[in-house]
């Protein structure tokens, strides 16, 4: 075939292949686009996606079952979870557990959501890049509860931590530990502790009784005396009285009339041995 004919047919063939590729791209709703079969919990599970496509990528509404047994139902954009969606997990016995409900961005939890963990803890609040960050509250599996600010998946900032016994701490947190100013309410004993905390330990504080100390489960045997702070007017009156007493009474100091004794080393002599000082 002559070269000039080949040169004419080359763009025609290229455009034909390009059209075929565009036609073969998945667009719109597609049902059960299966993935390869994988072994999951000693049985074969086939991953699939059912939903909308655009330019051969998942985009719109759809549901997907992956090889690890997680089922996602919600919004997609550019082949990633993006928008509002629900994530659940299928266990070996066939039960389905909810894992997350909320906002997604670029395939990660981002925004407000509800999360259930494997240890039966529950969190509701803000997420950023799959981590708890912002304001949120969590109920731990042991009965403890925290509500406040989060950063990098840990309590950070102002928050309230309530233990299962009822005792609670209100104050500042840094990297999951009590750090800064805070108040610890000893509900069991009926006392309040306000002070400074470092690395989850109190370094300086003031203890006082709560109003409901007698109603506490194990109240302290004796109450703590309350301190009464003086008012500004009272402080000024005391200062004025001190200034009015310009003349100070001289208090006689007893002195010995006998001459000084010679001090011998390693011999202890009492101060009141002289009869003049009696």
Walk me through this protein's architecture:
The chain is mainly β. Among the domains are: 24-116, Histone H3 K4-specific methyltransferase SET7/9 N-terminal domain (Single Sheet), CATH 2.20.110; 136-224, Histone H3 K4-specific methyltransferase SET7/9 N-terminal domain (Single Sheet), CATH 2.20.110. It is 13% helix and 50% strand. The chain is built from two helices and 15 strands. Strands 1-2-3-4-5-6-7-8-9-10-11-12-13-14-15 form a 15-stranded antiparallel β-sheet, with no helix packed on it. A hairpin with a 2-residue loop joins strand 14 (191-198) and strand 15 (201-209). The longest helix is centred in the N-terminal third of the chain and has 22 residues, at 3-24.
Task: For this entry, give a set of tags.
278 residues; mainly beta; Histone H3 K4-specific methyltransferase SET7/9 N-terminal domain; 15-stranded antiparallel beta sheet; disordered C terminus; MORN repeat-containing protein 3; MORN; cytoplasmic vesicle; MORN3
